[in-house]
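Give me the fold.
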Amino acid sequence: MMMRGLGMCGAVGGAVILSRSGLGHIGTSAPVATSAQCAAKPPNSTKLVTLSRDLRQRVLAVNTAALADADKEGLRVMDARLRPIRPGQPFVGVARTVRCFNDFLTVIKGLAESVPGEVLVIDTQQSTRTVVGELFGTESKRRGLEAIVLDGPCRDTAQLAEMDLPVHITGVRPISGTANKIYATQVAVQCGGVVVEPGDVVIGDDDGIVVCSVEQLTTILPAAEAIVAAEEQLLQGMKAGVPLLDQLNFDEHYAAVARGDHTSKLQFKGAQIQ
C-alpha cells in the first residue's frame, strides 16, 4: 500500500526605514555557504532555545520586511525560491535542522527529536525527490511545530494548503525519496542561500524568511516596531488625503543627493529613513 506523502510500502513510523511603503529595501542576504562549510560545523543537538510568549507576539506584530530593513547588512534573508504553499500564515520559531538528500529517513528523525515552538528547517542538498508531504505536515502540526521550511521539492500540496501550518518550499514534485539513508540533524545547514544553525530564530511571512540569533532579534526588534509604526502613520495620512510627499522631506533630500551629499537622510516627522 502506498503511504501518502512518503512513497513507501508498508507502515511507517532610532533610524526608521520604510519597508511596506516601498521606500525601504530588503537587507542583503548573508554570504552563501557551501555544503562543505556547513558540514565542517559540529552538531549542536544539546542546544535548547525557547522564545517567550511576549517576544513571539511582538515579532508576529511586525513583518519580515521591517525586520530586514532594521538590519540591512546583518540579517540573514533567504532567497526568493522559497515560497509558502498557503499565503497568510506568518510564523516565528526556533530552528530544528535536518540535512538529507533524496531520502526522508533523517526527516523522520528530526521530527522525532522536535519540540513545540520549533521550525523544521530542511536542507535537501538540491534533491530532486520530495522528502515532505501530508504525513509529515500532519505530524509537525501534532507536535506543535511552528512551520516547515524546505529547501527542496514537496508533494501533497493541496492537503498541506488546508493545514494551519506554514510550509515554505522551493518546488513541487510527486515522486518521493527513499527511506534507507542516514544523514544529519541539529547541524548547520544551508537553506535558501543562508546558513541556519540549530537554535536560530526563523521568521517568515508572505514576503519571505529571515534568520537571526535570539540576541540579534532582541536588538533589532525595537527598530522594526518603529518602522511599522512610522509606515502606519504614513498610511493613515494618505487615507486622510495627505500626499505622501507632503509627509516627507523628499525635495530637500533629492536635491542634496543630486549635489553629491550622501549624508542627507530621507525624513518623516523628524525620524530618519535609511
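The two ends are 58 Å apart (CA to CA).
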